[in-house]
């Protein structure tokens, strides 16, 4: 019987002027790893990725992209 585990929690810290690639790159990698992990019959749940900033307010990256974090 497969044991269902909670997903590993990953936090990405955002700050004004962050490079968008430094946010989206890791987010995409953990999302892909989570899909592969969950596709196996091992009962593991992969990764849960959340973004945070100091005050939880939307902020602009160095290229002008506005990102709204999940929380503060």
Number of helices: 1
Q: What level of helicity do the residues show?
A: 25-40%
Detail the poorly predicted runs: none
Structural class of the helix and strand makeup?
A: alpha+beta
**Main sheet specs:** 2 strands, parallel
State the total count of DSSP E strands: 4
* Overall mean confidence score, pLDDT: 91
Query: What order do the helices and strands follow?
Result: EHEEE
Strand ordering within the main sheet: 1-2
Q: Approximately how much beta-strand content do the residues carry?
A: 15-25%
Q: How far apart lie the N and C ends? A: 38 Å
The whole-angstrom Rg is 15 Å
- Global shape: elongated
Structure write-up:
- By secondary structure, this protein is of the alpha+beta class.
- Helices cover about 30% and strands about 20% of the residues.
- The chain has one helix and four strands.
- It has one helix at about 20-40; strands at about 10-15, 45-50, 60, 65.
- The strands form two sheets. A two-stranded parallel ribbon has the order 1-2. Strands 3-4 form a two-stranded antiparallel sheet.
- Helix 1 links the parallel strand 1 (about 10-15) and strand 2.
- The radius of gyration is 15 Å and the shape is elongated.
- The termini are far apart.
- The model has no long low-confidence stretch (mean pLDDT about 90).
